[in-house]
Amino acid sequence: MVVYVFGPVDMRTVSSLVAGAVVFAMCTIGAKVSNEKVKQTLLDILSLFP
Question: Which spans are transmembrane here (predicted)?
């Protein structure tokens, strides 16, 4: 779908979209979870992203 809307997509764009989706999912999970240990683990994982 992205290819048809925006034209040819290179791997950098695809990896950016995937990384953005992962970060969004982790933030959403972190907002819904009340356990502080889980939130801290998610923040630690997010810090690994460039």
Answer: 12-31
Full-prediction pTM beyond 0.90? no
CB proximity list for 49: less than 8 A, separation 6 or greater: 19, 22, 23
CA-wise closest residue to 42 among 22, 19, 21: 22
Boundaries of every domain in the chain: 21-50
Strand, helix or coil for residue 1: coil
Q: What is the DSSP letter of 7?
A: S
Tokens 């801290």 sit at which residue? 40
* Residue-wise pLDDT tens digits, 3-35: 555 666 677 777 788 888 887 887 787 777 777
